[in-house]
Each structure stands twice: as structure tokens, then as C-alpha cells.
Design goal:
Blueprint: E1 8-14, H1 18-29, E2 34-38, E3 52-54, H2 58-67, H3 72-79, E4 80-86, E5 96-101, H4 103-116, E6 120-124, E7 127-134, E8 141-148, E9 153-161, E10 170-173, E11 176-179, H5 191-197, E12 203-209, E13 212-214, E14 224-226, E15 253-254, E16 257-258, E17 275-279, H6 282-290, H7 313-319, E18 327-332, E19 339-343, H8 351-358, E20 369-371, E21 374-380, E22 398-400, H9 410-428, H10 442-453, H11 477-488, H12 493-515, H13 529-538, H14 548-551, H15 565-576, H16 578-595, H17 613-622, H18 627-631, H19 638-663
Helix pairs in contact: 1-9, 2-9, 2-11, 3-4, 6-8, 11-12, 12-15
Length: about 675
């Protein structure tokens, strides 16, 4: 770090989980002097729960992170030990890459990436409070720095808080309680007071994790193997024709040695390892039901709300009592460890019951538990207190990202971290924020949902949350977001040129297929190549899988096969879904007109006649920035929007008339 701790930074990032890492890298890569503070440098980028990245909608988000210059995708590709494309039998819009990672390799490589990043300093210290200032009028509050447990104060133009589950974290194993954000780590106990002092509301959430098992004690012959894809779908964008598929990894060198030359990680998709499937039994269910009163969740020990879409085993047997069994996945934690994660067996039951429960499962009859399962509850700040830039509405220059905003999952955290890091740097330079619109990607949907609707439970992204998901197939993320990456300086000139060239090849080929008719000698009848592709697909003779280009049973023009595999898939996606995509784009265009109607920050809703009482309360609390955002607030109906639109139009008309009166020569 710089010599003087009192030196002013452009951005200070508090916390080095997945949100903090992306925030710090994004800030530094835009040229901002960035300080990353963490209570333990040995747990940077720790995968506290399942060491897996991606999945339904989450995989698309990781590709969007890569398209915006983030690190999660490339780090996953180089430390992944199993790759699978989910929903392969469905349309490309909902196909999602997923990878099981080597837990420690992922962590070590990302830490090294941070260490090599110019403009970024790492320092081990626990943030205990924020330092505020008030403006000259004595009203309004800004953050100007942070206090630490080492009695060192650090000052910055902006601060990004990414505390994860550590904010007054409390772990539960039955009736046993321990302070901490995860097993073996501390709890950030004093930082919450700073937020409350600034008028920021805090609530409690809960999450949990399963026990970890020793692989030598497991009987895999009683389980079903689950293998990775022979041809893995990677997260980072690459050109399969390139000798180096990860062409855009342009990390700086230290003493002439780049990160890739040091061989951290391995060739993507190399020597994949299997996961294993087993199931709960009636004995498992009976053990859970008989001991519900000992579970921290069901005994009243936990006040926070748990994740709906990643329920504990107690919740599964209570909420889905009609199901005879539940599927479980045994997933390896890495190549250099024999530790296994039981995906699907999260619990807060006492340890003795955990042992019995685990051993009631086929293949786990003699299982040795290395770490107990536990639940952890923690403070979060309801995200409706944020602007779409992820800056606090209550405190200037303070940004929040990750689980402090009520989300769950590494991918949701990393997405917010990248946006918060970019916007913190841009705020310090007086530049406009980066805002990803809902029609541009899952990251836009995530942030808009959080700041507009808020959440009462850990938020998880699904494809169903995105009304424009047909536009969000994972292969298009670079082209969807390149204009933002270019404007914010997030990608190198080399990579921008490659994206532009790829887009040109794809658009040219789509246009040619839509305009060119096959030769009559082929006997395909009337219509363009595009018509014939859609007709072939409509007959159900092929599916829209990743290898769609190879499966289309048409003698396509020779030039088409000259494209890279991913480019061919993107061309065929755009041709096959041309009508649906055009309809989505028309819908987006109509909605964009509503988004353009801005609502002033100081707008007085009390003077709007005709608003229902519920809408008035919701609008005053959320303070939407546009009419479109107002329409997405729960409890605000179309009639309320009409009233608001009329009032805003009248307000603009009066302002225009006032300006006209001021410049009239007769008034001078």
C-alpha cells in the first residue's frame, strides 16, 4: 500500500468477497486509485458455500461480467474441474453454463490477480466504522473514509461496502451460537452502528450451508455419477479459431512475468472430475421431522428470513411433505482435497442429528463429517435505499454491493460489485453512472429489481425474472454490452476491436441468410435461407442446442462454416428466432419512451391529486428516477401511472412557459 495511510484514495472497497474483488478490479481498471480492505487476506474470494459458478440465469450473468471486463468468468475457466451446460434441451435463451471449481485454486488465482493489478492496493484490516462529513449548510451527509481495528483511518472520495454475511454475523448449529460471518471467521460487529447513525435502515436475513464430508468415507458405488460435458462451454468469451482461446486475458506483468505465464490454474476443461447423485430416504425425513424443535430455524432462535430457492432440508420436508425423497449432489471441493460438499442438505440441526441424518443416505452410511452444517444470520440494508447506480440515497459517495443488498449467490454479488466499483470511480471523477437497462441484460434486471422492488428474502436470479430474456442468450453478452464497456473504459482496444469484428461477421451473415435464396438445383423451393432454416426448425427435425449450426439439415452456403462455432450458433439463433426477437425489440422501444420520462429527485408526490394512498406511500419511499421505474414498484398500478404522467407533463409545460416568458423581449 502507499506509504501514508492518510493518503486520499479515489475508491475504498470494504470486503474482499466476490463483490469486493470485482468492485476493486473494475475501479482500478478504469484508472482510479483503489484500496481493498479485508479482515483476512488469506480468504480473499473465498467460496464460502458450494465451489460452483453459474447455473440458471447465473451463467448468463457471469458472461455479462466478462463482457464488462470482470474477472469471474476467466477465473472460473482456469480453475474449473467440471463444466456443464444446463437446459441444453431447451432454447438457447435459457441455456446456462455451470462449472464446479477447485475451491482453493479459484481463491488463490483471484488473489494473485488483485495483487498484480495496477492502481490497486490490498491491506489487511477490519473496517469498524465510516467517517462522515456534512455539507456547508449543515444538512446532508457524505462518507469520506473508514476507521479500522488497527486504529488506522483511510480516506477516499468514495467507499464501496461489500460485507457479505459478516455484518453482525451469527452462526447457529442447533442451540449453539457463535459470532462470525462463516465458520472459522470473525463477525463485523461495529460497522452496523455507522449505518444506523447515518439513517440507513438495517434488517436481518439468514442463509445456510451443508456439512462437508471426507471422500474416503463415501461409497460411490451406491450413487449415480454425473460427468461434465466433453466439449465444455466456457464462461469467458473466446474465439475457437485462435491458438490462445483466452485471448482477452491481458493481465499486467510483474518483473516481466504475466499471470498466465506463471501457470496459475490450468487449461480450461482439462481432466474434469465427476459429481455424484444420491437421495434422501424415509429415515432422513423422519429424523428431520422428529427433531424440528431442535433446529435453529424452527425453534425461534433465528429472526432472519432464509432463501426461498435454496431451502434447508428442514424446509424441504415441511414445505414439500408429499415428496418421498429429495435429490442430493456430492460435489468435490477441489483437485488437491478429498473434501466433498453435499448440495441440497443445508441445515441448522444439532451436530449429533446431522451425523445420523447424513448416514441415513445411500452411499453415506459411514460418512465422516469434516465440517458441520450451520445457518448464519446477518444484517442487510434493504436495497430500495439505493439509486440504480448502487449509491446510497441517504449518504453521498457510499455504495453497497452484494449480500448487504439482500442477494444470495456469488454471481449476483460479483455483478453488483462490478457496477458499484465502476460507478464509485466515475462518481469520484464527476462522470455519469453506468446503468444497465432491464432490456440489456440480467445485471440490469437484478439491480432494477433490488432498488425498485426491494426484497424480504435472499434474492436469487432466475430467467423468469427477465421479461426480455429472449434477448439475453449467453452468447450475445459481448455485443449487448460493448457500448457500455467502451464508454467506461472497461475493455482494452484490442478486445473492443475483436468484438466489433465478431459483431460485423455475425450481422453480415444474418443479413445474407435473410436475403439470399438457395440455388434452384438444391430443390428447396421458394424462400430465403432464413426461411428454410425456420421451416426446418418448425418441423422439429432439430433442436436449438449449442451445436445447432452443425445440426441444421440444410446445405448452408460454404462461407457460413468459416465462422467460429460460437459465431455460427449466434447467427442461427438470430435467424431461427428472428420474428420473436423483432417483437421483443419493438416492445423495448415502446417501453423506452416511458423510461425517458424522468422524475426529479425533489418531486413532491403530495401535490399529485388522484394518487391512491398506497401508491403515494410506495412512491415517496422508493423515489423512482423515471416513470418506467415507478411502474415496476409493487402497489403502483397503471391508473396511478396515468395520473403521474399527466402531472409530470403539466409540470414540464409550466416550466417551458416560464422559460419562454423570461426570454421574451417585452419582458426585458
Amino acid at each position: 500500500m502507499p506509504d501514508s495511510p492518510a493518503l486520499l484514495y479515489d475508491v475504498i472497497v470494504c470486503g474482499a468477497g466476490h463483490a469486493g474483488c470485482e468492485a476493486a478490479l473494475a475501479s482500478a481498471r478504469t484508472g482510479a486509485r483503489t484500496l481493498l480492505l479485508t479482515g483476512n487476506l488469506d480468504t480473499v474470494a473465498q467460496m464460502s458455500c458450494n465451489p460452483a459458478i453459474g447455473g440458471q440465469a447465473k451463467g448468463q450473468m457471469v458472461r455479462e461480467i466478462d463482457a464488462l471486463g470482470g474477472e469471474m468468468a476467466i477465473n472460473t475457466d482456469l480453475t474449473g474441474i467440471q463444466f456443464r451446460l444446463l437446459n441444453e434441451s431447451k432454447g438457447p435463451a435459457v441455456q446456462s453454463p455451470r462449472a464446479q471449481c477447485d475451491k482453493k485454486a479459484y481463491q488463490f488465482r483471484l488473489k494473485h490477480t488483485l495483487e498484480l493489478q495496477p492502481n490497486l492496493w490490498l491491506f489487511q484490516a477490519t473496517v469498524t466504522g465510516l467517517i462522515f462529513s456534512t455539507n456547508s449548510a449543515g444538512v446532508g451527509r457524505s462518507v469520506v473514509g473508514v476507521r479500522t481495528n488497527l486504529d488506522l483511518d483511510f480516506f477516499g472520495r468514495t467507499v464501496v461496502v461489500t460485507t457479505g454475511t459478516f455484518l453482525r454475523g451469527l452462526m447457529h448449529i442447533g442451540q449453539n451460537k457463535n459470532e462470525g460471518g462463516r465458520l472459522g471467521d470473525f463477525s463485523a460487529k461495529t460497522l452496523s452502528a455507522s449505518f444506523l447513525e447515518a439513517g440507513i435502515e438495517l434488517q436481518r436475513l439468514k442463509t445456510g450451508t451443508p456439512p462437508r464430508l471426507s471422500g474416503r468415507s463415501l461409497d460411490f458405488s451406491k450413487m449415480e455419477p454425473q460427468y461434465g460435458d466433453a466439449a465444455p462451454t466456457l464462461f469467458a468469451f473466446h474465439d475457437t479459431r485462435d491458438a490462445d482461446p483466452l485471448f482477452h486475458v491481458e493481465h499486467p506483468s510483474v518483473a516481466g512475468v504475466t499471470l498466465r505465464e506463471e501457470r496459475l490454474g490450468w487449461s480450461p476443461g482439462q481432466a474434469q472430475v465427476p459429481c455424484w447423485i444420491t437421495y434422501t430416504t424415509e429415515r432422513t425425513a423422519q429424523l428431520v421431522r422428529d427433531n424440528l424443535h431442535l433446529s435453529a430455524m424452527y425453534s425461534g432462535e433465528i429472526e432472519g428470513t432464509g432463501p426461498r430457492y435454496c431451502p434447508s432440508i428442514e424446509d424441504k420436508f415441511v414445505r414439500f411433505a408429499d415428496k418421498p425423497r429429495h435429490m442430493l449432489f456430492l460435489e468435490p471441493e477441489g483437485r488437491a482435497t478429498n473434501e466433498f460438499y453435499i448440495n441440497g442438505l443445508s441445515t441448522s440441526l444439532p451436530f449429533s442429528i446431522q451425523v445420523e441424518m447424513v448416514r441415513s443416505i445411500p452411499g453415506l452410511e459411514r460418512a465422516e463429517l469434516l465440517r458441520p452444517a450451520y445457518a448464519v444470520e446477518y444484517d442487510f440494508a434493504p436495497p430500495t435505499q439505493l439509486f440504480p447506480s448502487l449509491e446510497s440515497r441517504k449518504v453521498d459517495n457510499l455504495f453497497f454491493a452484494g449480500q448487504i443488498n439482500g442477494t444470495s449467490g456469488y454471481e449476483e454479488a460479483a455483478s453488483q460489485g462490478l457496477i458499484a466499483g465502476v460507478n464509485a470511480a466515475r462518481k469520484g471523477r464527476g462522470e455519469s453512472p453506468l446503468i444497465i437497462a432491464r432490456h440489456e441484460g440480467y445485471i440490469g434486471v437484478l439491480i432494477d429489481d433490488l432498488v425498485t422492488k426491494g426484497t424480504r428474502e435472499p434474492y436469487r436470479m432466475f430467467t423468469s425474472r427477465a421479461e426480455h430474456r429472449l434477448l439475453f442468450n449467453h452468447g450475445s453478452a459481448e455485443m449487448r454490452l460493448v457500448h457500455h464497456a467502451r464508454a467506461c473504459g472497461l475493455l482494452s482496444a484490442t478486445r473492443l476491436a475483436r468484438i466489433d469484428a465478431k459483431a460485423a461477421r455475425i450481422f453480415t451473415e444474418v443479413q445474407r441468410l435473410e436475403q439470399t435464396r438457395p440455388a434452384s438445383s438444391l430443390g428447396l423451393g421458394q424462400g430465403t435461407w432464413g426461411d428454410h432454416i425456420r421451416h426446418t426448425l418448425a418441423r422439429g427435425s432439430v433442436g436449438l442446442a449449442p451445436e445447432l449450426a452443425a445440426k441444421v439439415e440444410l446445405p448452408l452456403p460454404f462461407e457460413f462454416t468459416d465462422l467460429a462455432k460460437e459465431e455460427r450458433a449466434e447467427v442461427l439463433y438470430r435467424v431461427a428466432y428472428a420474428g420473436y426477437l423483432a417483437r421483443e425489440e419493438r416492445h423495448v422501444a415502446r417501453l423506452s419512451e416511458v423510461e425517458k420520462i424522468k422524475i426529479p429527485a425533489d418531486f413532491d408526490y403530495d401535490h399529485v391529486r388522484g394518487l391512491r394512498a398506497e401508491s403515494l406511500l410506495k412512491l415517496k419511499a422508493a423515489r423512482p428516477v423515471s416513470l418506467g421505474q415507478a411502474g415496476r414498484i409493487s402497489g403502483v398500478n397503471p391508473a396511478d401511472l396515468s395520473v403521474l404522467m399527466v402531472h409530470l407533463a403539466a409540470k414540464r409545460r409550466r416550466a417551458k412557459e416560464a422559460r419562454t416568458t423570461q426570454i421574451n423581449p417585452e419582458n426585458v
